[in-house]
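HUMAN: Please help interpret these C-alpha cells:
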Amino acid sequence: MKNLLLILTFIIITTSVHAQKKVTLQLSWLNQFQFAGYYMAKEMGYYEDVGLDVQIKEFQFGMNALSMLENKKNDFAIGRSSLLIDKSKGKDIVALAALYQQSPLMLLVTKDSKIETIEDLKNKKIMITADAEASASIISMLSSNGINMKDIKVLKHSFNVDDLISGKTDAMASYISNEPIVLDEKGIDYKIFHPKNYGFQFYGDILFTSSEFIYKNPQLTKDFYHASMKGWEYAFNNIGKTSEVIHDKYNSQKKTKIQFVKEAEVLKSLAYTGDNNEIGSLDKDTLAKIVNAYKVLGLITSDVNLNEFVYEYNNHTVFKLHLTKNDLFVVILIGSIIFIILIFLIISTSNKHKWLRINKQLQEDNSNAKEEIAVYKDSIKNQYNKLNMVMDNSNEIVVFKNENLNYIECNNYFAKLFTKKKEDIIGKNDFYLFDEEIATLLGETDRKVIQSKKSEIIVDWFNFPLIGEKHLFKLYIQAFEYEKGKIGVVIFSRDITEENDLEEKNLQNRKSTSVEFTSKVLIE
C-alpha cells in the first residue's frame, strides 16, 4: 500500500511537471531591449504561471517568420505593419498586439552629409531593405515629398552603422532605438527623418499568429497574450532591472547595460504615446490608414477585413480603481449612506413622516461627515506641502525610490545637480542618471537595505553636471514603506568634500607638527 502511494505521488508530480505546454515565439531581430517584455514574462514566471514553457527564438538571417508560422515551426512571431499586405493576399494572420504605436524605423543621416531636408535625398545613396513591404513607411515618406525609388540609389543594407559614418552610404534605414545611440557614443552628430513626422504612423513589432492556431488553442493564446503584456508592463516599469537581465542572459550583441537602458527609454516613448496607456493596443482606424498608404504604393489592391485581423481580446479596456485610504473612507461612507437611504425608502411607504424626519437627520450627518473629511484632507495636504517646502529648500539631497528602484520623489536640489526638472527624474532609475559603475553600486545597496530593512551608509565620489567635477558625498539609505506592504528606500545625502579636505589638511598639519617635535627632542 505504501509503495502504491509513492508510485501515485510520483505519477502526479511527473504529470504536473510535464503539464506545461511548449510554445515557440520567433523574434524579428537579434536579442535586445526591443523584445524585453517577452524575456521578462519568461524570467518573472508569468508564462510558467499559466502553464506555458515558451522558447524565444532569435532572428536568423534569411528566415521568413510568416512561412515558418504557416509550416507550424513556430506558434507566435513578431512582424511589421506589412502583415496587412500578407492579409490582403489571403494569408491566415491575426494580430494580437502592436508593441510600438509608432514604428522605430526611420532614415538616418550624419550632419556631415549636408542633408537637411527630404528633398536633399534625391540622387543620394540609401541603404534600405530590398522588400518594399518592410520599408513602406519610409517609401511613403519619400513619395509624399516628390522622391520616387528611381530618384535614389538603393544600396544593399549592411546593417553596419560604420558605412554611414564613412560615407559609403548617404542615408541608412535604421531603428531610432539602435543606431542613434551608437552615433551618440561616438560623438557624431546626425539627423533623423521619421515617417511619423510626415503623417505616416505605422505600427512596429506586431505580435501575431494564425486564426487556425487560435481556434485550436483559444485559452493558450489568451494566456500567452496576457502574460506577454504583463511582461511588457514590468519591463518598462523596471528598466534598470530588465536591462541587467538582458545584459546577463540575452546579450548576443554584447551591448552594455547603459546601451540597453538608453534603448529602453526610446522604446518606451514609442510604446506609450499620447493618451494611450494600454500596452500593445491596435486601433482599427490607424490600421485603415496604413492600408490606404499601401494602396497608394500599389502594394494592396483589395480591402482588408480588420475585424479578422485584430485579435478579439486586444485593447479591451479594464476599469482599474486605485484608492488612497482617504478616498476609500469616502467611498465606504457614501456607499453606506446610499444603502441606508434605500432601506429607509422601503420603510417610507408605511411611515412617511418618520422617513422625512430620519432623512433630515441623515442629511445633517452626511453634511457633518463631509466637513470632517474635507478638514482631514486639508490637514494632510498642508502637511504634505510643508514637507515638500522643507525638502525643496534644503541644500541636501532627498530622494525616494520604490521597490523597483524607480524614483518616486526627489527635491529640487537633486534635480538641479543634473540640470533637470523633477518631472524628468520621477519614474526613472539610477542608470538614467549615473554611469554604470555608480548605478550598479547604488542598486546593490538599495536592494540590500530593502531586504534587510536596515540602513546603510555610502561615501563615494560623484560627478554631477551642475558641479562639473567630482565631489565627495555621504549617503544615508533607509528602508521605508511607501504603500501598504511595499518597501522602498529614502536617501539623504550631502556634499562632504570641504569637510574631507579640511580633515586631510588637519591630518597633514598634525603629522608635520609631530615630526618637527620629534626632531627637536632628538637634537636636544
Observations:
- The longest strand covers residues 470-483.
